[in-house]
Amino acid sequence: MTHVVTFSKKAFTWAVVAATILWSVGIFGVLSVAQATSVSSGDLIKASGAAVYYLGSDNKRYVFPNEKTYKTWFSDFSTVKTITDAELASYMIGGNVTYRPGVKMVKITTDPKVYAVGMNGELRWVESEAVASALYGANWNTMIEDVPDAFFVNYMVGSSISNATQFNVSGVTAASSTINVDKGLSAESVGGGLTITLAPSTPASGLVVGNAARVPFTRVNLTASSDADVTVNSLTVLRGGPSSDSNFAGVVLLNGDTSLQIGNSKTLNSNHQAIFGDDFVVKAGTTLPLVIAGNMNPVGTYNGGGEVITLGLVSIDTNGTVTGSLPV
After folding, report:
1. Per CATH, is 193-323 categorized as 3.40.50?
2. Predicted confidence (pLDDT) per residue in 190-234, tens digit
3. In whole angstroms, what is the distance from residue 288 CA to residue 276 CA?
4. Distance of CA 272 to the CA centre of its chain
5. Can you give 73-86 as a three-state secondary structure string?
């Protein structure tokens, strides 16, 4: 069944098939006949139909459920590329795009709770109006969008927010610089290649002393291809295991060859992540041994006895193609 609804000057086609709603938008100034167009990861693409997709770095296309979701990522449709129907069909659908983290709060149509949106579609219940106001200002109620029940499966429910310090609005938005990054896909291809592997020298489990500095948790080898240098724009480290963020005064990155610190120390956010935005370069044909280390809080500032702590690399954004499985 196809139901066509027209809103002002734009045409939106809603094709309802087995609870899957495909959103599309008419685009002015784009030829209906596809030209020979080169596309790559991160591009917006369409074919002879009106539906617009995001091309992920996993070589799959991602669907925008509606225009409101689209507009949290892109301001207009000027960069959409038209390809042939056959080429579009060659890209399997990878899933739906979720609201960009931090830009809007959402509410499920049959659930009165209001949620903040974290990375990869994590919904975090905002427990009170006071918290919502602290996060989004006095007009917080204008920042809420309804998500149809059919699209609730695109999201996952995380921990609630009882205090505004538990959610960094601008931080999660900045960390989700692209849909590739938000979904944890490999970085977009622009420059040389970067291979990520867990280093054999990664420390085995052991004891950590309170107040210790630069305690190595994970060692990762970043190897650049011989054709070009690779710039690492940002990366995200996740604290895992049955443990607490309060164990850490900060998380740091170290050059394993020189023991020099790369960028500044970062604290863990409400998603238990440390986000590093200080870019660095891996020279062509070389390997940078990256050490993910922790600066521990003094004994007595937390109850960390018997906890099992991990620090792992969960996402990386570079100017090149990334090979390797994350998280590491």
Report:
1. no
2. 457 899 999 988 877 777 788 899 999 999 999 998 888 888 888
3. 16
4. 14
5. CCCCCCCCEECCHH
Residue 132 has pLDDT above 60, yes or no: yes
Residue 11: count other Cβ atoms within 10 Å of its Cβ: 14
Residue with tokens 């940078």: 288
CB atoms within 10 A of CB 129: 11
In this prediction, residue 159 carries a pLDDT of 93
Number of other residues whose CB lies within 10 A of the CB of residue 171: 16
CA 73/CA 75 separation, integer angstroms: 7
What gap in Å lies between CA 80 and CA 137, rounded to an integer? 33
- H or E segment and range at residue 89: helix 85-90
- Name the residue ranges covered by the structural domains of the chain: 2-96, 105-182, 193-323
Neighbours of 160 (CB within 10 A): 16
Length reported for the chain: 328
The answer to whether residues 179 and 96 touch, using CB atoms and an 8 Å cutoff, is no
Tell me the mean pLDDT in the region 56-60.
Answer: 88
Q: pLDDT tens digit string along 171-201? A: 888 888 899 989 988 544 445 789 999 998 8
3 state DSSP class of 171 = helix
Nearest to 249 by CA among 309, 302, 172, 204: 302
Average pLDDT, the chain: 83
